[in-house]
Each structure stands twice: as structure tokens, then as C-alpha cells.
Amino acid sequence: MPIVWSALAVMMFAAGAQSASAQNARASQKTSKALPTAAAARGAPSRTSQGAYSSAQARRGEKAYRINCGSCHAPTAYTGASFLQLWVGRSAYDMVSLLRQTMPNDEPGRLTKQQYVDIVAYLFKLNGYPAGARSLPTEDADLRRVVIDRRVTAAP
Ligand code: HEC
């Protein structure tokens, strides 16, 4: 984006447009360079946008989902705006608990806790959250610390 902006600014400048436009464009280029980059988190990630599950875990979760959930739900059933509306601001613990208490619909609680946690990791992946170095934990206290936030998207 900044490259497009400054290229546009140069063209406008060459065409004799007001130089103020070019200055604005250069200023906006500076601002976008100052955007924070994803910091390498040392401690346990506390937000899903920072990578709260591992990719190996999401792969396990995908298999578990296909076997235990796929007969009733398409993989894309829990993605998009409705998912975000429902879950942003809540914790990974809330999601794991809901699934353990209600799903599979015909036999709630049938899976191991590890499997439910892996499925939640898979759902995070489906929703565009990045994988990180650590797995989503299985202890309730740790799960409560993982907040589902808005995933990082391109700045407007
Ligand atoms: C036998 C069919 C069946 C299976 C198997 C099943 N579900 Fe469901 N699921 C449903 C139905 C029906 C609903 C909607 C009604 C409800 O909320 O109880 C639902 C609702 C849901 C919801 C939405 C709950 C909410 O309150 O918004 C989620 C998330 C979900 N299922 C995930 C799963 C996962 C993960 C699995 C596998 C562990 C699974 N389901 C297995 C039938 C099933």
C-alpha cells in the first residue's frame, strides 16, 4: 500500500499537482512503517491473535473434527463474522467448556479433554488465527488466560 501511495504521489507531483498531496503521501508512508510488528512472545501467549496453538495440534484437531463432528457440521460452519461476534472477548476455556458440555450433540463429553482442546485449536486455525510455538493448554486455569481477540488484519 505505501508503495502505491508514493508512486501515486510522484505521478501527481510530476503532473504538476499541489506538492502538499505528495507530502501527505510521504507522511502516511512514514506512519505505516511505524506499525508494530508481531513481537516474538516469550511467555505463554494470552491472545489468539498472537498464536495460541501449534500447527501440529490444529492438524490433530482437524482429524478429530472430521471423525467426531463432520457428520453433522461442515468444517466451515464455525468461521466468519458470526463466529467472531459470538466469541471475541471470551476465553478459550469458554469454548472448550461449551463443546465438552454440548458436543457431539448425540453424546456430549464423549471425547477426551485433549481432543476438545485440539478441536478448538483447529477452529482457531479455520478462523484465520496464526499458529504459534506452543500448544493450546489443557488445564482450565491456563485456558482461562487465553483470550479470543480480533485477529490482526490489514490496516484500513
Ligand atoms: C449428531 C450431530 C452432531 C454432532 C456429531 C456434533 N454436533 Fe455440534 N451441533 C449439532 C446441532 C444440532 C447443533 C445446533 C443445536 C445446538 O446448539 O444444540 C450443534 C451446535 C454446535 C455448535 C454451536 C453451539 C453454540 O451454542 O453456538 C458448535 C460450536 C458445535 N456444534 C461444534 C461441534 C463439535 C466441535 C463437534 C464434535 C466434537 C460437534 N459439534 C458434533 C449437532 C452435532
Offer a few descriptive terms.
7 helices, about 160 residues, mainly alpha, binds heme C
Structure description:
With 156 residues, the chain is mostly helical. It folds into two domains: 2-33; 48-144, no CATH class. 51% of the residues lie in helices and 0% in strands. The chain contains seven helices and no strands. Helix 5 (92-102) packs across helix 6. The longest helix is centred in the N-terminal third of the chain and has 15 residues, at 19-33. The radius of gyration is 21 Å and the shape is globular. The protein starts with a helix and ends in a 12-residue tail after the last helix. Residues 1-45 have low confidence and may be disordered. Heme C binds next to helix 5.
**What is the number of beta strands?**
0
Q: Give the overall pLDDT as a whole number.
A: 77
Number of helices: 7
Order of helices and strands: HHHHHHH
Q: What is the percentage of strand-forming residues?
A: under 5%
Distance between the termini: 10 Å
Oligomeric state of the chains in view: single chain
Low-confidence stretches: 1-45
Number of domains as seen in the coordinates: 2
Note the overall shape. globular
List cofactors, ions and other ligands. heme C
Rg: 21 Å
Helix content bin: 40-55%
The largest sheet, given as strand count, sense and whether it forms a barrel, is: none
Based on secondary structure, the structural category is: mainly alpha
